[in-house]
Amino acid sequence: MAQKKNHSPTVVGLDIGTTKVSVVVGEINPDGEIKIVGVGNHPSHGLKRGVVVNIEKTVESIKNAIEEAEHMSGHEINEVIVGIAGGHIKGMNGHGMVTLREKEVTQKDIERVIESANALLIPAEREIIHAIAQEYTVDRERGIHDPIGIHGLKLEADVHIITGDVTAARNIIKCIETSGTSSVDMVLEQIASSEAVLTQDEKEIGVAMIDFGGGTCDIAAFMNGSLKYTESITLGGDHLDRDIAFGLSIPLPEARKLKENHGVATLKPDEQPSDERIEVRSASGHVPKNILKRDLATIIQLRMEEIFMLIRKELLKQGIIGMLPAGVVLTGGSSKIKEMTTLVEQVLDMPARIGIPRDVTGLTDIITDPIYSTGVGLVKYASLNEGLGVPAGVLKQKNVFTKMKGWFNEFF
Ligand SMILES: Nc1ncnc2c1ncn2[C@@H]1O[C@H](COP(=O)(O)OP(=O)(O)OP(=O)(O)O)[C@@H](O)[C@H]1O
Ligand SMILES: [Mg+2]
Question: Which residue, 353, 381, 396, sits at the end of a domain?
């Protein structure tokens, strides 16, 4: 964590994204309020579809983003909570069961029942990133969220288990270590983003959070207050850039700029296609091109429809599409394309809103942006799950450290 004398304990989130690496420094006040005191952001060139493919370039981006965040916050950063994402991540639901030795549920029983769910499902070449209890059953009493102290003979748990490719996880750790800091926990990026943008009510009612970034679309669905489904689709804003560059014969950086400044995901039903043109540099670099805004919109709409039809198919396959009355919350940089919610509401046939980091204070003028949802969410996750109101460094608690240690030992 970050260290600075006479300050509240701090946690640092490191989001290694496909297009940018961002670092978010949060101070945790004794009452649990999170104040964002530093942010670092640097373009990322070492990832493909959410996965590190070039250590050197990634290390360079991490170093730059950390330096910026240290400078802004005045904290020295020694430890971070890092996000993990990509197509290698698999989420599945398991079930565990144990007999109660003390005839009353203890913390130890909770650990045992979650472990028993893990043991059934995990292939040897994968590593568990999270095992999150959804609900417990004590004897025949179902739907219990906090079973400690309840009397009974048998404890069961429904558990959402998230596993990832060991190599992808180790490469992240290697990048962090090489950049001169260390990681105390690794958190699935959509869990972090959900922490930043969703309300507890939405999680209770039923909601899907979609973090639409540069290289991936990361999904997390919650029902009855618990995480029920996670999925990652390896399509993102980068694919839109390529479609636009290819379709309009313009260079990639021009395509990205065009998308960010003039792109729309779809036309509103009552809107006429525009004849307006925009002048951009052509691929040859000689004569500028006049692009019809309508052509740009068509290219974006086609790709968007493909991505959200794919998501619709996944949600249908999982049988959860009708169980999300709170609809969809979109975040990540690509959610900033105009009329995103209109398109998503049309394709998924449920309400949609844009999610930005909420319930934090401090540098809100910077972090009130969907690109910071993962970074801020990592800070919130750490403060809620491990480090709330405790001095920096205490995050090295047993469960967290055991998980990371396994990967370190194998790697070094
Ligand atoms: N105003 C905008 N309109 C459209 N797209 C935008 C806008 N601003 C940013 N983007 C796009 O958002 C994407 C980057 O989003 P984000 O920072 O969430 O991705 P990332 O975290 O780096 O990637 P990933 O999470 O997929 O690994 C880029 O494709 C960028 O072009
Ligand atoms: Mg991201």
Answer: 353
Mean pLDDT computed over 219-230 = 95
Enter the tokens of residue 211: 């973090």
- The residue contributing the CA closest to ligand 1 atom 21 is 17
Alpha-carbon gap, residue 248 to 232, rounded angstroms = 29
In sequence order, the β-bridge partners of residue 183 are 80
Could you tell me the distance, in angstroms and rounded to a whole number, from the CA of residue 336 to the centre of ligand 1?
Answer: 8
Question: Per residue in 65-94, is it b (16+ CB within 10 Å) or e — as a string?
Answer: bbebbbebbebebbbbbbbbbbbbbbbeeb
318 lies in some domain: yes
Q: Do residues 143 and 181 share a domain?
A: no
For residues 3 and 295, the model is more confident at: 295
The CATH number given to whatever domain includes residue 385 is 3.30.420.40
**Mean pLDDT of all residues in 371-395:** 69
One domain, residues 59 and 122: no
pLDDT at position 309 = 97
CA distance 293 to 171: 41
Q: Which of 14, 15, 18, 235 has most ligand 1 atoms within 8 Å of CB, for mutation?
A: 18
Task: Give the CATH number for residue 128.
Answer: 3.30.1490.110
Q: Hey, whose CA ends up nearest to atom 1 of ligand 1?
A: 260
The answer to whether residue 221 sits within a structural domain is no
Which H or E element spans position 52? strand 51-52
Q: Are 100 and 79 in a shared domain?
A: no
Count of CB atoms within 10 A of residue 141's CB? 11
Among 96-105, 115-124, 236-245, the range scoring the smallest mean pLDDT is 115-124
Assigned domain for 388 exists: yes
Residue that wins the pLDDT comparison between 183 and 385:
183
User: What are the strands of the beta sheet with 126-138, ordered from one edge?
Assistant: 90-99, 154-165, 126-138, 141-144
- Judge residue 35's burial from the number of C-beta atoms within 10 Å of its C-beta, 0-12 exposed, 13-18 middle, 19 or more buried: middle
What proportion of the chain, given as a percentage, has pLDDT over 90? 75
pLDDT of amino acid 407: 46
